[in-house]
Amino acid sequence: QPEVGKPMRNCYSLPGPDFTYGMYIHKRDGGVPEAIGHWDAVKARPRKRVMPRDFVTMGRGAVDEGCTTAREFALYYKFMDIRCKDKEILRYGCKIPPGMTFGKPSRPSTPFFDIMQHRYKELWMEHQRARTVVQHVVKKKVGILQQCFPRLGEVRENCTTFLRTHPLPVKEESFWHPQRFEKV
């Protein structure tokens, strides 16, 4: 029986030090040193890349040759196989420049001292001051133009603006007469 306040002890004995838990693979089992020291590297097989057909150029050539029917175009495409010359189509699988990671240029490192010295805040403040100066200059120019041409900024009055400023009077309805007796 178990002791009071203690769990029951396991009565199974563990196997010896030469016992291997799990499957033993003779070919690859070398433990951690082999896993760290010998990586399974797969060598890429060179594969000849075939560029896609350039149907635009082939179509132009067929028209220049005088092809008019679908059969003539098909025969022209069969005998004049023109391929695209643009290398950008096969950019995946080509050699990647050293500064690229998965086809994207790597981000420049964050200038830590600019962050510590509040350089970005200063740049933003300078930008805001320049923007305020430009707005002030534009307001001055508009004011001068308003003095020279007083009707420059005014909107010509049309029917819509007139109705907004002078709404139509509300028609008073008589609620005590039914509508069928209005013409009587």
From TrEMBL:
InterPro entries: CFAP77 (IPR029147). Pfam families: CFAP77. PANTHER family: CILIA- AND FLAGELLA-ASSOCIATED PROTEIN 77. This is CFA77 protein. The lineage of its organism: Eukaryota, Metazoa, Chordata, Craniata, Vertebrata. The gene is Cfap77.
